[in-house]
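name: query_chain
kind: protein
chains: 1
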Amino acid sequence: MKKVLAFDLGASNGRLMLCSHDGERIRLQELHRFPNHAINVCGHYYWDILRIFQEMKEGIRKSIQAGHHDVSSLAVDTWGVDFGLLSSSGELLGNPYSYRDSQTSDGMEALNKIVTNTELFHRSGVEPAVINTIYQLYAIKQRQPEILDQAETLLLTPNLVSYFFSGVKANEFTISSTTSLMNYKNGDWDDELMELLKLPSSIMAPIVKPGTILGPTLDSINKELEMDPIEVVAVAGHDTASALAALPIKDENAVFMSCGTWILIGTQVKEPIVTEESLDWGFTNEGTIDGEYRLLKNNMGLWLIQQCKLMWSREDQQTTYEEDNQLVRDAKPFKSFINPDDPSFFHPENMLKEIQNFVEKSGQQSLETKGEFLRCILESLALKYRWVIDRLEHLTGKPINTIHMGGGGIKNEWLCQFTANATNRKVITGPVEASSIGNAIGQFIALGEIKDLKEAREVVGRSFQTKEYEPQNQKEWQDAYERFVKFVK
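structure:
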């Protein structure tokens, strides 16, 4: 029985899973879970990375207390684009900024005066989005050049935490591919681009392949936690890349959906698809665990519902998951729609007000009940996913018949069924903890426990249940799509 620790850090919570493999099946045990969110300090949003790291150590402590003294390795996957800067002595230069911080807009505007979005896309294959690392770094250069003067190393979030555990500085391929700073043609940092932007390319830690064993845990960690050293592995550090590795996909033309606060929709391709259409439609090309690429689009996900429920909780009107289901069931279908990716929903002070404003300004019926808000969000999300998948089919030139959904968002069965209805395609859901499982798969492959990704997906298929959703009510959903599509730019 081989055991590994998989840290999966999301933008709303983090978790530690103990993953074991007996040669036939993978088993998961959640050891520790903790909330995570960006913190507003003096008008800027930061990640409290030291508290996150302390929670991760607490998870290891729980593992040891539970008697798991035979763990072979640990690894980390996270959201994309964010990073930390280290000094020449290896110390952290302040808390990392969150991608939701407003300074990134200023960085994008200034950078585009030097390099156009089209040129950036054709160099990196990555959609020029305001959250991308390149804009964050350029904003820091403008606002705080002294920090870049002090910086010797830039580490992306999963690699920063891996450094805390191992002392090894390296950036893994899949997470590096989210930055707009990696040239997809050679799979390395774009020194020419960084020189043009007067960004210090020397700070970019080298890119390593998924599955690289960085080294053992530091003596200081071993002493603090009273543990034997274990290997730290650089798995597919972008959580979506890890999630994709864990989906039991058999049809190479299938679409994957990694479902959570964001929902990322894409398909695996051997080489990036870098065309004017893919740029205009907002698609991006990011790495996979086996060195290929994910042609995908970042889409708003359950953030909309999370923020609505936050507002209701502030008014002491909390609802349970079961109550939400009943509210959706009772609400009138297709009353009004929103474009889920409208900028007004990115980080509003009051999500309920922003949704109502969108509905009313677009000449639709006002939303009155919680059920109407929830149903409007879920229907709009599913209809937007049809828009995305239809364009994926066009860009790849291949028919897409099946959608694989994984991640915590698949617990919302309305979202899964509505996605099947809206897209007129079969949906297969599972596993829920896809990112954690993919993280573990990367470790098992690195340790020689599992041969390759093909074998890993066979193991996943034996280990976890899936559920299928067939399309329903096609005429009603087609009519709804024809109304909805006018809100999508």
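note: The longest helix spans residues 370-396.
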